[in-house]
From TrEMBL:
UniProt family annotation: Belongs to the class I-like SAM-binding methyltransferase superfamily. Trm1 family.
GO biological process: tRNA N2-guanine methylation
A GO term for molecular function: tRNA (guanine(26)-N2)-dimethyltransferase activity
Name of the protein: tRNA (guanine(26)-N(2))-dimethyltransferase
Class of the enzyme per the UniProt entry, highest EC level: transferase
EC numbers: 2.1.1.216
């Protein structure tokens, strides 16, 4: 990203550095300029106590926010036009029916009691016959509706840079309120507004929560931007109440050390109502914690949320969420909230558990009817079924989709026409949004489907009107994320103490088995797939066997890697069919006795060994029952036999082929264009700046 052009000017008797970003310009005092460019150890006392600050690293955030609000604003304007047209159509239909009734009365008049009444009737008939001609220009005049209002609240505005950009770069914005609690920030903001000669911005000195709580229905906003220093949790409750029905919340949380780390799990629970996940997928877990906090804040007031775009960027999270006033949709919140059983200190596998259950059935017209019931649990035991290590609980967190594909595609369609001088981070926006769009596995074809990627299609419940192309249909309110989170191949290789497979080879192996895979925008070399964990670990075991053998002494008994490699095909072949499971159990028990430090530790290891033994016998029972049924006498089969549940084959029977060409084909299925998907540090000593002084 290029540094903004800076020039020294004199304004109102003082000298300032003018920083231009987008179409907006802000006046930076010299001390503030030093704070924006230096590191903490290089700053002087005057620089440390800056009144407000400018962080150029957040330009990507602001560029993306302008484009996202533009997409949402065009959606709102088209939606208002559609409603106005439908209202006029209904009124025209009612007027036509009224004129038809009047014409019928004219053709068949009621018998008048005297001639005077008859004469009045004939006189009144004349303008009635000319009414359609007179009303035609009136209908044309009514079609010319004034421009609909579109209001934005920058709740924590500081210098007012976001408000300046929204007012100058969004032509349909009618009012922007730039609020801040600091008097010095308001003073600087007014100076910047006058310097940019913008009349649609209204500075406001108040606590953001008090201001948003005090709004009436007529004063609510179409867009509310929360960009605090740290967490946005204290402002979420007020923001959902200050947004209009169908409004947009743009929320930034820079406290990644809380929502993406287990070092402060109690702090995360107090702020976001959930425990974070430990592991490389912690940033996606943090996004889901933030979304769940917004959903719970909205649900208390009969409002439901729809995440449009949820991104983990550098050191912060940025989510764009639509809120709707719909008590009926609030009932789906429990079914979209999940817990996670995470094997964080073992192999890294996870299992999800939704708190509620949204069961659907269709009525006579084919429309879905939902019944909200309790969810059965648990979906996982206290020990990991793959390595026997203890699992830890994370959540509750948002279990629905993170993005609306239609919204992302709308922003991507804007980028070719965006001015690169105004939006200097377009390359990174395109790369990150394309990667976020590819995260939807339903848009990714498998090996057995067409190689053409599927375009995001509107929900069948909300039909797309071609007369209003900017309208972004809602996602299915009952949609759940079937395959949340991602994993890193290097982390899997670390568990087995082997070399890391190339990502194309690994994705080619998954595709050869019929599973889909894609990237995650949060981490490079990450994989999101619909393959179950037993298949993922079988692919890794085959990588060790075929390409990267390891020494038997490299994995200590009782570790996660030893337990996973104990299920390898070679170990299973060494044992006879009669005693293989018993021998594995004996081996695990002996390892537990040797490695146990005390009684409690020994009990834990024995329990893990017994648990692994139970999972092995469950794998064995399926082929044994099938063999028994084949040897038995054939039984007459009824004409309509009930459908048998699908039984996944044992992982050791899978043919794993590491096809790098197929992996490259899978990677290029969405786009062959070289994109900036994961940008390195934009500049030296980058990161969050110091909090502004008051």
């Amino acid at each position: 990203m290029e540094d903004p052009k800076i020039q020294l000017v004199e304004y109102q008797g003082n000298q300032y550095h003018v920083v231009k970003e987008g179409l907006a310009k802000i006046l930076n005092p010299p001390a503030q300029e030093a704070a924006s460019k230096g590191t903490k150890k290089d700053l002087k006392d005057d620089d440390q106590m800056q009144s407000v600050f400018y962080n150029p690293i957040q330009q990507f955030n602001r560029d993306l926010s302008v484009l996202a609000i533009r997409a949402h604003g065009e959606h709102i304007i088209d939606l208002k036009k559609q409603k106005a047209a439908q209202k006029l159509k209904r009124q025209a239909g009612n007027g036509e029916k009224k004129r038809k009734r009047e014409d019928d009365q004219t053709e068949n008049p009621r018998p008048a009691p005297n001639a005077e009444h008859k004469e009045n009737t004939e006189t009144n008939d004349q303008p009635v016959s000319a009414a359609p001609v007179d009303q035609e220009p009136q209908s044309e005049a009514r079609l010319e509706q004034p421009a609909p209002s579109f209001t934005v609240l920058d709740a924590l505005s500081a210098t007012g840079l976001r408000a300046l950009r929204y007012a100058s770069e969004l032509p349909f914005v009618t009012k922007v309120v730039a609020n801040d609690l600091s008097e010095s920030a308001i003073k600087s903001m007014k100076k910047n507004i006058d310097y940019n000669n913008l009349k649609t911005i209204k500075p406001n000195l108040a606590d953001a929560r008090v201001y948003m709580y005090g709004l009436d229905n007529a004063s609510k906003f179409d867009v509310i931007d929360l960009d605090p220093y740290g967490t946005a949790a204290p402002f979420m409750d007020a923001a959902v109440q200050a947004a209009k029905d169908g409004g947009l919340l743009c929320v930034t949380c820079t406290d990644a050390g809380v929502w993406a780390s287990t070092g402060y799990s109690e702090k995360s629970f107090s702020l976001y109502g959930g425990i974070p996940i430990k592991g490389l997928h912690s940033h996606e877990g943090g996004l889901r914690l933030i979304l769940n906090a917004i959903a719970m804040s909205a649900a208390k007031y009969g409002m439901a949320i729809e995440p449009l775009l949820s991104l983990s960027i550098d050191f912060y999270a940025r989510v764009f969420v639509r809120v709707y006033r719909s008590p009926a949709q609030v009932k789906f919140t429990a079914g979209n909230t999940m817990l996670v059983y995470n094997c964080d200190v073992g192999c890294g596998a996870w299992t999800t558990q939704f708190i509620g259950c949204n069961k659907s059935k269709t009525d006579r017209k084919g429309n879905p009817i939902y019944n909200h019931t309790l969810s059965q649990g648990p979906t996982a035991g206290p020990h990991c079924e793959h390595c026997g290590t203890k699992t830890h609980l994370a959540g509750p967190m948002w279990g629905g989709p993170l993005h609306n594909p239609q919204f992302i595609q709308k922003i991507l369609d804007m980028l070719p026409g965006a001015d690169p001088e105004t939006y200097q981070t377009c390359a990174r926006i395109e790369g990150m949004l394309t990667t976020a769009l590819e995260e939807d596995l339903d848009l990714t074809p498998s090996q057995f489907e067409s190689s053409t990627p599927k375009r995001p299609v509107p929900s069948t419940k909300h039909h797309h009107d071609p007369a209003y192309p900017a309208i972004i249909p809602r996602m299915d309110v009952a949609a759940q994320e079937k395959y949340p989170f991602y994993f890193s191949i290097s982390a899997l290789a670390k568990v087995l103490h082997t070399t890391t497979p190339p990502i194309d080879d690994f994705r080619g192996a998954l595709s050869h088995l019929g599973y889909r895979s894609t990237r995650s925008h949060t981490k490079p070399n990450s994989i999101r797939t619909d393959a179950p964990w037993e298949v993922i670990w079988e692919v890794m075991r085959e990588w060790v066997r075929q390409w990267s053998p390891i020494k038997e002494t490299s994995l200590k008994p009782g570790t996660a890697g030893a337990a996973i490699m104990g299920k390898s095909r070679e170990n299973l072949r060494k044992l006879s069919d009669e005693d293989q499971w018993l021998s594995l159990l004996k081996k695990d028990l002996m390892s537990a006795v040797e490695a146990g430090r005390d009684i409690s530790d020994l009990v834990t290891k024995v329990e893990a060994a017994l648990y692994r033994s139970g999972s092995r016998t469950s794998w064995k029972s399926a082929p044994a029952s099938a063999e028994k049924s084949s040897d038995a006498d054939p039984q007459p089969v009824p004409e309509k036999a009930p459908a048998q549940p699908f039984k996944r084959p044992h992982p050791s029977t899978l043919e794993v082929v590491f096809d790098d060409a197929l992996g490259r084909e899978v990677s290029a299925v969405h786009t062959k264009k070289r994109l900036v998907r994961y940008q390195l540090n934009p500049r030296a000593n980058w990161g969050p700046l110091n909090r502004a002084g008051r």
